[in-house]
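Before we proceed, please read the two lines closing this message. Tell me what the token row says about the fold.
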Amino acid sequence: MIYIVVLGGLLLVVGAIQGKSRWGNNKAYKENIRKYQTKHGLTDSELNLFKDTLGEAKALILRWEEANKGMKELTIVEAQESGLKSSKEIFQELMEHPQKIHQLNEFLYTKLPGVVEASERVRQIREASLSTKEIEASVKSMVQTISVISASITDDYEAIIQEDSEEIALTKKIIGEK
């Protein structure tokens, strides 16, 4: 959950400081947004796309987290595959490196929405307390799909870490050669 709060980093919401008017806070908010935009070299349209996309990603991650609560099957999948945790880490990575948003299109627009939809559907079916052979087979199939997507999300995060590791190794090598 703490990783989701990082979206506040994008928005750089300045807490209500005693003695400041709403206008003063709005001015500070706009200044912090401008600093973030400048730091990361984002155009106005890129910043808006980034805010919209990460806002949607945050909402999906929160929905996924909620769908998993108290659901034994989904908790087991998370313990094995760490898809939700990896999603939070990818979200944090995007906050720190917004230029990577295009590299993670499949995560943002296919994997994350798909796993959330499947998780919510499993929860809905379990809460209906109906159990037939066919329903159980369908739920088993959905849980398998969730597991595959979760593993794929974790693979995406591992690829980010590998890329960062290679960049660090290259920097070390360059520094060592001088």
